[in-house]
Structure formats: structure tokens, C-alpha cells
Amino acid sequence: MSATTADSWSSSAAEPKAPTGRRGHRDKPQKWGSPFTYFVALLFIGACVAPVIYIVLGGFRTNSQITTNPAALPQPWVFSNYAAVLRSVTFWGEFANSVIVALASTVGTVILGLMVSFVIARYDFKLKGAMYSLFAAGLMFPLVIAITPLYIVVKDLGLLDNLFGVIIPQIAFGLPMTVIILVPFLKAIPNELEEAAAIDGASRLGFFVRMVIPLSLPGVVTVGILGFVNSWNNYVLPLYILNSQANFTLPLGVQAFSSQYSVDTAKVLAFTSLAMLPALIFFSVFEKRIVGGLTGAVKG
User: Fold this and answer.
1) DSSP strand E in 114-245: where?
2) Maximal CA-CA distance, the chain
3) In this model, does residue 71 exceed pLDDT 90?
4) Distance CA 118, CA 122 (A)
5) Cα separation of 138 and 172, whole Å?
6) What CA–CA distance (Å, rounded) separates 14 from 180?
7) What is the pTM of this model?
8) What is the C-alpha to C-alpha distance for residues 242 and 227, in angstroms, rounded to an integer?
9) How confident is the model at residue 100 (pLDDT cuts 50, 70, 90)?
10) Could you give the angle at the alpha carbon of 215 between the alpha carbons of 214 and 216, nearest 5°?
């Protein structure tokens, strides 16, 4: 073999080959979309974020600043509005009521929804499809439509001006969304796992606790987050059920506070900011889990 041939063989062996197939296609930089698409997306983002920013910054201003130049930044920054709200016993009482209602509603919705979804997804029985369709139809009937008959039922149960009068209906109206999201997760669990658990001596309840709940955790977290945020922001149901300010949740507290301090716009904006802050933080922290859970439900 000649020296030229050997040199060419060694150089070709030393040079890395260009990636081929799917891997090479993935390494290519993705093309940007249409500028018009990004412009429209920015408009929607601005329309959603701008009111929140205005409310938060408005709490750091005085009434004269808001009247003189509503769109300007605080100059100077005023912290007394937020400090006055945080020192208010009424605010913390309403905050505690919102936490109790949101946590109880979320836990009840997740537990009951997980059990119902397990039965629909893993068992064959008559009217199974009708039961699933009934929960799916529940998504088309929001709470506002049924508020009058719901008020009569709560009144007959003696739960008016009681936090349980808000918690129980919120659990009932949260079940349709929970079942629709969780059923695909539970259907995706292989039957072989259940058979292997039965061979190992696990009961159906043991399989449910040890296998089903951990495997469906992304969906459980998703429905829990959505249920918590919806309960925290619920205004119509507490408005009809709760009468005394000692039982008010924060959405009702904002309305009562804005009526009491209607001339003090800056303080009202500060109260509103603090009332919506927990839900915003909670949703922002778990946003990726929500997307992942809904993606898994669609794939299932």
C-alpha cells in the first residue's frame, strides 16, 4: 500500500463524520416563527400582565399620585398602604378563611375524584360510559347557573353563613374536571402491574394506595393546583352563602374593603394585591406541573 493511500485512509479515519438521521436533524437550530405570531402573543401577554402590574404598583402610590398621573411609577414609593393592610386583623381572618376553604375543597375534590376515576378507568360495569358522560357534561354547567337551587339546598342543610356551605358545593363542582383529567392517567397503568400486585398478595385497596396514587401523581398534582386556584378565586358562591364578615373569604373581603374605603384607592389596590398574591405565587411555582399533567392526560 502506497504512502499516499495510507495518508488518505488515516485522514479520513480521523475526521468525524457528520451526524445523519434523526440525530442530525435534531442538532439543526429551529427556525423562528412568524414575527406577527410573536407580536400577537406579546399583545395577549401584555393584556393579562398589565392590570396586575398596575394594581401592585398602585398600592405603592398615594391617591393624589393616582389622580394626577394614573400611568406613572410611584414617586416617591409609599409603603404605608401595604403595612396598614398587613396590620389589619380583618385581612388575616379572611386570609385564614380562604386557606381553610381552598385546602378543604382541594383535598376533598382530589380524594373523591381519584376514587371515582379509579372505578371508571379500571372496572367494567353497566352504565360506565353513562357515568363518565355525566361527569363530562358537568363541565358544561358552571356554578353560576345552579346558584339559586344550590342556595336553597345549602339553606335546607343549615349551612348558610358556614364555611362548609362553600366547601361542599366546590367539591361537587370540582369533580367533573378532576375525573376527566385523572381517568386517562389511570387507564394508562398496565394491567400487568395489577396482576403482579395480586400475585404478591396485595388487595385492591393496597394496589390503589401503593401503585395507583404514585403512578398518577402528575395528574393528582395538576387537579390539586387547579382546584386550589379556582377555590381561592371563587366569588359568587361565598357571596350567596356567607353573610357575616367573620366568615368572609378574601374575594368577599376585597369587595367589602373597597366599599368601606372607596375614597382611598391606593389602599384598596394594596388590599387587592395582597389578596391575589397567594394564588399568583401558587400558580407560578407549579405551572410546569400543570402543563405536564394536562399533557399526560391528553396522551392517555
Assistant:
1) none
2) 102
3) no
4) 6
5) 10
6) 57
7) 0.78
8) 20
9) very high
10) 95
Angle at 55 between CA 50 and CA 58, to 5 degrees: 120
Give residue 10's pLDDT band: very low, low, confident or very high (50, 70, 90).
Answer: very low
CB 174 within 8 A of CB 182: no
Question: Is the pLDDT confidence value at 23 over 70?
Answer: no
Distance of alpha carbon 228 from alpha carbon 106, whole angstroms: 6
CA neighbours closer than 13 Å in the CB half-sphere of residue 30: 4
Query: Cell digits for 4?
Result: 499516499
For the chain, the residue count is: 300
Interval 27-39 mean pLDDT:
71
Question: Average pLDDT, stretch 218-225?
Answer: 86
Average of per-residue pLDDT across 72-80: 88
Cell of 160: 348558610
Cell of 139: 363541565
| Contact partners, residue 284, CB within 8 Å, separation at least 6 | none
246 vs 166: CA distance, rounded Å: 14
CA distance 93 to 199: 52
- Strand, coil or helix: 218: helix
What per-residue confidence (pLDDT) applies to 1? 45
Between the CA of residue 49 and those of 14, 42, 133, 191, 273, what are the distances in Å? 55, 10, 37, 46, 13
Give Rg (Cα) of the chain.
28
Q: Specify whether the CB–CB gap between 216 and 186 falls below 8 A.
A: yes
